Amino acid sequence: VKGVANLSLVSSACDVVSAAYASTKERHPCLGSVCGAAEKGVQSVGEATASCVQPVLATLEPHVAAVSEYASKGLDKVGEKLPLLPKSVEQILSDTKELLSSRVAEVKEAVSS
After folding, report:
1. What Gene Ontology terms describe where this protein resides (cellular component) (predicted)?
2. How many of the other CB atoms lie within 10 Å of CB of 102?
3. Domain extents in the chain
4. Predicted local confidence at residue 88, as pLDDT
5. Which residue among 1, 3, 5, 37 has its CA within the 20 to 30 Å range from the CA of 15?
6. Do 84 and 92 touch, CB atoms closer than 8 A?
């Protein structure tokens, strides 16, 4: 999970969503109150679940470590095949705009000639 979260694309996408969420809560106080209550509820459930699951995780730790190692290797292979993963959302959008501008210019030139 940490490996996926550390990918630039995932990290920047989370930042964009987080900023939009915070902005929405600010602009709409009623919605902000509902979201705040939901956040507290999720936090309480998360804490309760963590205390219950901790003994099970301790027992499964060697297996989790092995799965984590395989997942990390798989993520590395996926990263090699998908060049977008190390890029941020902003960088992908910028590259896409440049590519589209270039293609539109080529089409305009072809049509005019």
Report:
1. cytosol; lipid droplet
2. 10
3. 1-112
4. 86
5. 37
6. yes
